[in-house]
TrEMBL record:
<feature type="domain" description="GIY-YIG">
    <location>
        <begin position="2"/>
        <end position="77"/>
    </location>
</feature>
<dbReference type="InterPro" id="IPR035901">
    <property type="entry name" value="GIY-YIG_endonuc_sf"/>
</dbReference>
<dbReference type="InterPro" id="IPR050190">
    <property type="entry name" value="UPF0213_domain"/>
</dbReference>
<comment type="similarity">
    <text>Belongs to the UPF0213 family.</text>
</comment>
<dbReference type="Pfam" id="PF01541">
    <property type="entry name" value="GIY-YIG"/>
</dbReference>
<dbReference type="InterPro" id="IPR000305">
    <property type="entry name" value="GIY-YIG_endonuc"/>
</dbReference>
<protein>
    <submittedName>
        <fullName>GIY-YIG nuclease family protein</fullName>
    </submittedName>
</protein>
């Protein structure tokens, strides 16, 4: 079974992008190559701000939804502290 991560990127306009993946470095490379999401494609380059192992895909999806609903100033702490658990 694959292990899933939640990650937070900082885009060139200082906005955050939250996503999930099984390979954070591969996904970051995809974002910076313009092959991941439309959001980051328009805001390159993106840098990795935070990532945390969350377990299975179901938990990763729940975590992503939780973090995306938070105000900007709480997103980094939520990823580091696993606040959705």
């Amino acid at each position: 079974m694959a292990q899933w991560f939640i990650y937070l990127l900082t885009c060139s306009d200082k906005s955050y992008y939250c996503g999930i993946t099984t390979d954070v470095q591969r996904r970051l490379a995809q974002h910076n190559a313009g092959k991941a999401s439309k959001y980051t494609r328009a805001r390159l380059p993106a840098s990795l701000t935070a990532s945390t192992l969350v377990g299975d895909k179901s938990e990763a999806l729940r975590a992503e939804l939780f973090v995306k609903r938070l105000p900007r100033e709480k997103k980094i702490a939520a990823v580091h502290n696993k606040s959705w658990s």
